Amino acid sequence: MSASGSVDVFDQGFEHEQVVFANDPATGLKAIIAVHSTALGPALGGTRFHPYASTSDALRDVLNLSRGMSYKAALAGLDLGGGKAVIIGDPASLKSEPLLRAYGRHVQSLGGRYYTACDVGTFSADMDDIARECSFVTGRTVAHGGAGDSSVLTAYGVFQGMRAAAQVAWGTTSLARRTVGVAGVGKVGRHLVRHLVEDGAAVVVTDVYAPALERIRDEHPTVRVVASEADLIASELDVYAPCAMGDAITDDVVDALSATIVCGAANNQLAHPGVEKALEERGILYAPDYCVNAGGLIQVADELEGFSFERAQQRATGIFDTTLRVFELAASEGLPPAIAADRLAEQRMREVGRLRGMWVPRG
């Protein structure tokens, strides 16, 4: 505790390099930018626009998300660090060009230590607005030379990870005749449903946003819709795919699941340490979230080289092999896959990061 009685974060295992609180009263901007690590290169991670109940909730989310981005980039073999940003508020009512441009100026002030991209509540067109004030933006529209919607390769990568999990669980990479439950059919879940239907899976979905469900019904009439996530979890499933917000896998969910595999696009799926062991004890194969959902990061990172969708998709296909490598290490070391993925990511950050140190702008 400090002299004032408040908690000193530096005494609580705080590991982030930098956290910035961005404020612009004229536009209503309240944002937090968290740079977890630049040991492998400048931090890259999306901007989430969400109506958090409190600043504390927003801070907790951005710290967790940015840490996950460091691990995601490391495991994907990218020369990038981990960062994330959150804008506090309802994007439906608060988002505006002036606010996004004000946010862009705050990102610009970091001098390239943090590159932003899309996330929940932000889109490629928003990145174009941010880029009017900032040089460190990816995931821009195709019209502006960008990679466009990163959810395309996020979903593709999750599908590759799911195929790898199916190989381990059932000896085949096909999801044909398997029942897959997708919780959240927004930007990523919608594309994932298409891959699953094309592969011959029976798909069950739910979402809190009714128009998203209507769109799935229109695009894929064979997909079954259930009313709630609880109903989905109670369904007879072979694979459960959380594709909405984090903390989706709780102790109660583990107890209720009939699925053999958990593999989805949501970040920070495990609600608390120890859930990964509960999954293992129940015989449920967990494909670590930041391993399988790295396709979007790979897509927007490719933009930094001059975007090629074919090249980015080829790199995202490698998520299949990376996921298998995680499962192989887990099996050989007697570890839950979540711990095995952490060890592989930490090994790369440690070994390559030694050569780089903290990334600072060159000028």
Can you put this structure into words, describing what you see?
By secondary structure, this protein is of the alpha/beta class. The protein has 2 domains: 9-144, Rossmann fold (3-Layer(aba) Sandwich), CATH 3.40.50; 151-306 and 313-339, NAD(P)-binding Rossmann-like Domain (Rossmann fold), CATH 3.40.50.720. Helices cover 44% and strands 16% of the residues. It has 15 helices and 11 strands. The strands form 2 sheets. The protein has a 6-stranded parallel β-sheet, with helices on both faces. It has a 5-stranded mixed β-sheet with strand order 1-2-4-3-5, with helices on both faces. Helix 12 packs antiparallel against helix 13 (309-317).
List the helices and strands and how they pair.
Blueprint: E1 18-24, E2 29-37, E3 43-50, H1 55-75, E4 81-88, H2 91-94, H3 97-108, E5 114-118, H4 124-130, H5 151-170, E6 179-183, H6 187-198, E7 202-206, H7 210-219, E8 224-225, H8 229-234, E9 239-242, H9 251-256, E10 261-262, H10 275-281, E11 285-286, H11 289-292, H12 295-302, H13 309-317, H14 319-333, H15 337-356
Parallel strand pairs: 3-4, 3-5, 6-7, 6-9, 7-8, 9-10, 10-11
Antiparallel strand pairs: 1-2, 2-4
Helix pairs in contact: 1-15, 3-4, 5-6, 5-12, 5-13, 5-14, 12-13, 14-15
Overall number of domains: 2
What is the approximate shape?
globular
**Main sheet summary:** 6 strands, parallel
Q: Could you tell me the mean pLDDT? A: 94
Oligomeric state of the chains present here:
single chain
Beta strand %? 15-25%
* Element order: H for helix, E for strand: EEEHEHHEHHEHEHEHEHEHEHHHHH
CATH H-tier superfamily of the largest domain: NAD(P)-binding Rossmann-like Domain
Helix content: 40-55%
Ranges where pLDDT stays below 50 over 5 or more residues in a row are 1-7
Give the CATH architecture of the largest domain: 3-Layer(aba) Sandwich
CATH class of the largest domain: Alpha Beta
Q: Separation of termini? A: 39 Å
Rg from C-alpha positions?
20 Å
CATH topology of the largest domain: Rossmann fold
